[in-house]
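Running this now, will post back.
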Amino acid sequence: MIVVLAIIALVAALIVPNVINRPDQARVTTAGTDIKSISAALKMYRLDNGDYPTTTQGLKALVEKPSQPPVPGAYPPDGYLSQMPQDPWGNPYVYESTGGRFAIKSLGKDGKPGGTDLDADIDGTTR
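Update: finished.
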Protein backbone atom coordinates (compact mmCIF):
# COMPACT_ATOMS: atom_id res chain seq x y z
CA MET A 1 0.00 0.00 0.00
CA ILE A 2 2.83 2.38 0.83
CA VAL A 3 4.45 1.66 -2.53
CA VAL A 4 1.19 2.51 -4.35
CA LEU A 5 0.87 5.76 -2.38
CA ALA A 6 4.49 6.63 -3.18
CA ILE A 7 3.87 6.04 -6.89
CA ILE A 8 0.73 8.20 -6.79
CA ALA A 9 2.64 10.96 -4.97
CA LEU A 10 5.45 10.77 -7.55
CA VAL A 11 3.02 10.99 -10.48
CA ALA A 12 1.18 13.89 -8.79
CA ALA A 13 4.48 15.71 -8.24
CA LEU A 14 5.21 15.45 -11.96
CA ILE A 15 1.73 16.43 -13.18
CA VAL A 16 0.58 19.16 -10.75
CA PRO A 17 3.17 21.80 -11.78
CA ASN A 18 2.09 21.43 -15.42
CA VAL A 19 -1.61 21.71 -14.59
CA ILE A 20 -1.19 24.73 -12.30
CA ASN A 21 0.28 26.86 -15.13
CA ARG A 22 -2.59 26.08 -17.54
CA PRO A 23 -5.05 28.78 -16.34
CA ASP A 24 -2.47 31.53 -16.86
CA GLN A 25 -1.49 30.15 -20.27
CA ALA A 26 -5.18 30.08 -21.18
CA ARG A 27 -5.47 33.76 -20.19
CA VAL A 28 -2.56 34.66 -22.48
CA THR A 29 -4.26 32.81 -25.34
CA THR A 30 -7.57 34.52 -24.54
CA ALA A 31 -5.89 37.94 -24.60
CA GLY A 32 -4.45 37.22 -28.04
CA THR A 33 -7.86 36.11 -29.31
CA ASP A 34 -9.54 39.18 -27.78
CA ILE A 35 -7.02 41.45 -29.49
CA LYS A 36 -7.84 39.83 -32.85
CA SER A 37 -11.58 40.34 -32.25
CA ILE A 38 -11.09 43.97 -31.20
CA SER A 39 -8.90 44.50 -34.26
CA ALA A 40 -11.67 43.15 -36.48
CA ALA A 41 -14.17 45.55 -34.87
CA LEU A 42 -11.74 48.44 -35.39
CA LYS A 43 -11.37 47.52 -39.06
CA MET A 44 -15.16 47.54 -39.44
CA TYR A 45 -15.24 50.96 -37.75
CA ARG A 46 -12.67 52.20 -40.25
CA LEU A 47 -14.58 50.77 -43.22
CA ASP A 48 -17.75 52.53 -42.04
CA ASN A 49 -16.19 55.83 -40.98
CA GLY A 50 -12.96 56.29 -42.93
CA ASP A 51 -10.52 56.07 -40.03
CA TYR A 52 -9.90 54.38 -36.70
CA PRO A 53 -11.11 55.98 -33.46
CA THR A 54 -8.60 58.43 -32.04
CA THR A 55 -6.51 57.50 -29.02
CA THR A 56 -8.64 59.92 -26.98
CA GLN A 57 -11.86 58.25 -28.12
CA GLY A 58 -10.31 54.89 -27.32
CA LEU A 59 -11.96 51.50 -27.49
CA LYS A 60 -15.06 53.05 -25.93
CA ALA A 61 -15.83 54.24 -29.49
CA LEU A 62 -16.57 50.61 -30.37
CA VAL A 63 -19.24 50.37 -27.66
CA GLU A 64 -20.94 53.78 -27.94
CA LYS A 65 -20.88 56.51 -30.57
CA PRO A 66 -18.20 59.10 -29.80
CA SER A 67 -19.43 62.63 -29.16
CA GLN A 68 -16.03 64.28 -29.56
CA PRO A 69 -14.53 64.95 -33.00
CA PRO A 70 -14.16 63.27 -35.32
CA VAL A 71 -17.73 62.05 -34.82
CA PRO A 72 -18.38 58.97 -36.98
CA GLY A 73 -20.96 59.46 -39.70
CA ALA A 74 -22.04 55.83 -40.13
CA TYR A 75 -22.30 54.35 -36.66
CA PRO A 76 -24.45 51.21 -36.22
CA PRO A 77 -27.23 51.39 -33.58
CA ASP A 78 -25.69 48.55 -31.52
CA GLY A 79 -22.09 49.71 -31.89
CA TYR A 80 -19.25 47.41 -32.85
CA LEU A 81 -18.84 45.62 -29.51
CA SER A 82 -21.47 44.87 -26.88
CA GLN A 83 -19.31 45.92 -23.92
CA MET A 84 -16.04 47.59 -23.07
CA PRO A 85 -13.31 44.98 -23.52
CA GLN A 86 -11.11 43.98 -20.60
CA ASP A 87 -8.18 41.62 -20.66
CA PRO A 88 -8.44 38.24 -18.89
CA TRP A 89 -6.92 39.76 -15.75
CA GLY A 90 -9.66 42.41 -15.53
CA ASN A 91 -7.62 45.35 -16.86
CA PRO A 92 -8.60 47.51 -19.83
CA TYR A 93 -6.75 46.93 -23.08
CA VAL A 94 -4.35 49.73 -24.02
CA TYR A 95 -5.26 51.37 -27.35
CA GLU A 96 -3.33 53.91 -29.39
CA SER A 97 -4.16 55.25 -32.82
CA THR A 98 -2.03 57.22 -35.25
CA GLY A 99 -4.58 57.62 -38.02
CA GLY A 100 -3.85 54.79 -40.44
CA ARG A 101 -2.42 52.52 -37.75
CA PHE A 102 -3.44 51.34 -34.33
CA ALA A 103 -1.97 49.30 -31.50
CA ILE A 104 -3.81 47.25 -28.91
CA LYS A 105 -2.16 45.47 -26.03
CA SER A 106 -2.77 43.82 -22.72
CA LEU A 107 -0.26 44.65 -20.02
CA GLY A 108 -0.24 41.01 -18.91
CA LYS A 109 -0.83 39.51 -15.51
CA ASP A 110 0.84 42.31 -13.54
CA GLY A 111 -1.02 45.12 -15.37
CA LYS A 112 2.23 47.08 -15.84
CA PRO A 113 4.16 47.88 -19.03
CA GLY A 114 6.95 45.48 -19.94
CA GLY A 115 7.55 42.37 -17.91
CA THR A 116 8.51 38.81 -18.69
CA ASP A 117 6.68 35.49 -18.91
CA LEU A 118 3.07 35.94 -17.75
CA ASP A 119 3.71 39.60 -16.90
CA ALA A 120 4.83 40.37 -20.48
CA ASP A 121 2.73 42.65 -22.65
CA ILE A 122 0.59 40.95 -25.28
CA ASP A 123 0.16 43.18 -28.32
CA GLY A 124 -1.42 43.32 -31.74
CA THR A 125 -0.08 46.18 -33.83
CA THR A 126 -1.57 46.47 -37.31
CA ARG A 127 -1.11 48.62 -40.35
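The beta strands are 94-97, 102-106, 122-123. More later if anyone needs it.
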